[in-house]
Amino acid sequence: MKGCLPLAALSLHALVLLLHPAASSAAHDYADALAKSILFFEGQRSGPLPPDQRARWRGDSAVSDGSLDGVDLSGGYYDAGDNVKFGFPMAFTTTMLAWGVVEFGELMPPEQLRHAAAAVRWGTDYLLKTIAHPNRVFIQVGDPLRDHECWERPEDMDTARTVYDVSPERPGSDVAGETAAALAAASMVFRETDRPYADRLLDGAFRAFDFADSHRGAYSDDPDLKAGGCPFYCDFDGYQDELLWGAAWLRRASRNDSFLSYIQDNGKTLGADDNINEFGWDNKHAGLNVLVSKEFLEGQIFSLQSYKESADSFMCTLVPESSSSHIQYTPGGLIYKPGGSNLQHVTSIAFLLLTYANYLSKTSQYVDCGSLSISPASLRAQAKKQVDYILGDNPMKMSYMVGYGDRFPRRIHHRGSSLPSIADHPQFIACKEGSVYYSSTDANPNPLVGAVVGGPGEDDVYEDDRADFRKSEPTTYINAPVVGVLAYFAANYGAQ
């Protein structure tokens, strides 16, 4: 029809704006948000804290983890607002932090790059401990059922620090494969600044992958391990994607052709063609396709073309006008997936949008959505829209990052944040004694600066209710992808 733009000429950004008119856009200080998003990880640290710890309301905790089993498992991160160390999401968190530094670290101010690398290293130092014993990978510390019965500071923990592991007899290819990915990705972070440590990480990645591939199986298929990890972090989607994900990262970090062959030879049998449009701690398919697409786009390795096609297919689900079955949006324009803790999907997808846009730009490529051709600039615009929503461009007119902006969540579902600090209240607070703080309507005394919470529901509503953990609980795997995303926007948009 004369006078109308053809559908193929519309950008993804324009399409999304047509369907989801945004709240009035505010100016955002992405550099400030970046700094805060990295600081968050210091509030999640377990073990003895270093002298340069900036989240001063935290103290040493769980310093003897693993000692009853004759191993050192101190360190690492608590996954969310509890005091358990779950290896599966912790490894994914570390992978995403490292990937963010690999892709966007050069855009970070030197001080923030140093803090981001320290956040990666806090994860990898622990992951190296989990693979330090032959034929065992330690995957968890803490009894989640007992832990969740208490509301106490990490520094006061007196619940069982049960240790869980996988072995050839009780395999865990999912956790071991993700650990391999994390160590391989992190080796790239330290390759130029600490080569011996990078070599140690890469060697660990080889060993973790060999264990994962040689002893195939999902850790939550074992009744004992299932009792520990489920229903919190069951492997719902199988271990096959973690094998390909681990191999893909080993290929990128080592340039070893055997891993290229592994991806080429095992793609179909391990489900790479299933084209599952998910990406998170349990399902790596969309991230895998984006990661491997880089090799196809830059090296024209045509046996990897299906990965690029699958990456395109995922991006097309973000376009409401494409023929794909598209992802749901809230009325305010936020990507929404049912199940709670929605912003974990938003930050991961925003990261993939930006990263894929970079890969496409460097090779002058577009996303093929059949009748639509989507530009890298359009992918970036969609990522920016999602991040701006998190930072305050939303119907609630509030930031979902603690400490950013004038209005943000103040009653988050987080034990250490909601209880008085050791400095302010040095007396021991027992398991049930913390209940009064859990039930309080007061703001948390220790703001967990930089934490991105689960976020609003499908109606864009957020009540700031500590008890509503699906909305008010922060997690490491929500924050990890947003670090790289904010680095990009801070460098390209600055304080607007």
From TrEMBL:
<dbReference type="Pfam" id="PF00759">
    <property type="entry name" value="Glyco_hydro_9"/>
</dbReference>
<keyword id="KW-0119">Carbohydrate metabolism</keyword>
<feature type="active site">
    <location>
        <position position="473"/>
    </location>
</feature>
<keyword id="KW-0732">Signal</keyword>
<feature type="domain" description="Glycoside hydrolase family 9">
    <location>
        <begin position="30"/>
        <end position="486"/>
    </location>
</feature>
<protein>
    <recommendedName>
        <fullName>Endoglucanase</fullName>
        <ecNumber>3.2.1.4</ecNumber>
    </recommendedName>
</protein>
<keyword id="KW-0624">Polysaccharide degradation</keyword>
<feature type="active site">
    <location>
        <position position="413"/>
    </location>
</feature>
<dbReference type="InterPro" id="IPR001701">
    <property type="entry name" value="Glyco_hydro_9"/>
</dbReference>
<dbReference type="GO" id="GO:0030245">
    <property type="term" value="P:cellulose catabolic process"/>
</dbReference>
<keyword id="KW-0136">Cellulose degradation</keyword>
<dbReference type="GO" id="GO:0008810">
    <property type="term" value="F:cellulase activity"/>
</dbReference>
<feature type="active site">
    <location>
        <position position="464"/>
    </location>
</feature>
<dbReference type="InterPro" id="IPR018221">
    <property type="entry name" value="Glyco_hydro_9_His_AS"/>
</dbReference>
<keyword id="KW-0326">Glycosidase</keyword>
<dbReference type="InterPro" id="IPR033126">
    <property type="entry name" value="Glyco_hydro_9_Asp/Glu_AS"/>
</dbReference>
<feature type="signal peptide">
    <location>
        <begin position="1"/>
        <end position="26"/>
    </location>
</feature>
<dbReference type="InterPro" id="IPR008928">
    <property type="entry name" value="6-hairpin_glycosidase_sf"/>
</dbReference>
<dbReference type="InterPro" id="IPR012341">
    <property type="entry name" value="6hp_glycosidase-like_sf"/>
</dbReference>
<comment type="similarity">
    <text>Belongs to the glycosyl hydrolase 9 (cellulase E) family.</text>
</comment>
<keyword id="KW-0378">Hydrolase</keyword>
